[in-house]
Amino acid sequence: MDNQNKICSVDDCNRKVFTKLSKEKCVLHCEKSGIHRHHRSYHLLGSSFSTELENYIKKSKKETCNYFIGVHFPWIDSRDEADYGYAIFFKESRGKIDFEECHFYDILYKKYFVNSNIDFVEFYKCVFHIDYPIIGLDTEIYFKCCFERKVCNNEKNITPSLEFQQCTFQKEVIFDNALITGNIFIVRDNNVQSIFHDKLKFDNCVFDNSQKLFLDSDNNKDLSIKLKSCEFRKKFKIRSIEVEGKDYIEQQKNKAKLKSLKIIDCTAEDGTYLRFGFLDIEDFVLQNLRLPQNSELNIGDCRFKEFELSNFRNIGKFKLYKTNILENEEGQSFQINNTSIGNADFQGINLLSFKKVKLFIQ
Ligand SMILES: [Zn+2]
Q1: Which of 195, 235, 234, 233 has its CA nearest to residue 214?
Q2: pLDDT for 260-295, tens place per residue?
Q3: Ligand 1 centroid vs 36 CA: distance in angstroms?
Q4: If you measure from the C-alpha of residue 14 to the centroid of ligand 1, how many angstroms do you get, rounded to a whole number?
Q5: Distance between Cα 114 and ligand 1 center (Å)
Q6: Which residue, among 5, 11, 45, has the nearest Cα to 28 in the 3D structure?
Q7: Residue 42: what are its φ and ψ, rounded to 5°?
């Protein structure tokens, strides 16, 4: 069939189909996966996309400023940035940009926005097909977005207004060497949390604000969480979300199951409250934590395959309660090694059910 004069199938789009890549969509709306610099349509795509996006912006400015719907932003080789890069599109913009149902095949560099006085971007139902470093603007909100690959930060200070709400992370999420001043994984009243499929790792991060990570039992079966060399300055909580209208027994069956939860070489400030609870965890490790006075570590209502607490110096308050084995697993073990437990409160720990128990308390 001749597609030359066919019109894009997206509602209200009157552009011609970009036949080099699509049978039914225009150059802005067509999918752009697998495009590299030697792809036969790469240069044509770059120039056509630039031209059409510029027209789109001119047109949309009359209605709503800075609003992109359904656009698939292509990957551009850095050598071609001057010709096809996106920076020019945002150059006259100010304030906020909204992206709705857009797809990204390339990173959004901070310079695109900073040079144009944009300090607020909001992404709604967008898909990120690449390893994605968050941009680093004053406010970044990701709502119902899907990250197909790694998500990370590329600068030390993560804005107070970075929020992920009801997003899906298909690969790992890694924050490295970051000062985190907001609650980044938000759950609103409707109790729908982001979904993690792989790893959530905070390496060398400072949590300057209280953090609540609530996990949804249906969607986080293979998640590993690691907190390495982090500093907790405020309340820090990881737990399963409660499903409304269910009683305690039902809630128990419905806890999120983590592959691992490891808290290693972290420090807590005086007065901090750390809570890891209401979870099923295959491999739990808490190593090298010194809990200062007026602080509390609370681990409870969990089932473990392996539980290990080592080099723990408690000058604050430590509460371990309702601890059981994860059933249908082999070789459950419970170990407390080289630990000065201080003011500890143990309740309802079913030690006999663990196959291996080792306690070395100073
Ligand atoms: Zn279109």
Answers
A1: 195
A2: 999 999 999 999 999 999 999 999 999 999 999 999
A3: 22
A4: 7
A5: 28
A6: 45
A7: -55, -50
Q: Which helix (H) or strand (E) holds 90?
A: helix 87-90
- Rounded Cα distance between 242 and 206, Å, is 28
Token code pair at residue 283? 């491999």
| CB 237, CB 279: distance < 8 Å | no
Residue 94, Cα to own-chain centre: how many angstroms? 27
- β-bridge pairing 127-128 and 267-268: unpaired
User: Number of helices (H) and strands (E), helices first, in the chain?
Assistant: 5, 31
102 C-alpha to ligand 1 centroid (Å): 12
Alpha helices per DSSP H over the chain: 42-63, 81-84, 87-90, 110-114, 248-253
Alpha-carbon gap, residue 115 to 344, rounded angstroms: 54
C-alpha of residue 123 to centroid of ligand 1, in Å: 19
Phi, psi of 79 (to 5 degrees): -65, -20
Tell me how far the alpha carbon of residue 18 lies from the centroid of ligand 1, in angstroms: 9
Q: How far is the CA of 60 from the centre of ligand 1 (A)?
A: 14
Rg (CA), the chain: 25
Compute CA 131 distance to the chain's CA centroid, rounded to the nearest angstrom.
12
Residues 204, 179: Cα–Cα separation, whole Å: 9
C-beta of residue 316 within 8 angstroms of C-beta of residue 296 = yes
Q: How far is the CA of 176 from the centre of ligand 1 (A)?
A: 38
* Residue 285 main-chain phi, psi, to 5 deg: -135, 125
In tens, the pLDDT along 123-174 reads 999 999 999 999 988 899 999 999 999 999 988 888 778 999 999 999 999 9
Handedness of CA 112, 113, 117, 122 (dihedral sign): positive
Beta carbons of 115 and 134 less than 8 angstroms apart: no
Nearest to 333 by CA among 301, 305, 294, 291: 305
Two structure tokens written together for 316: 């604050």
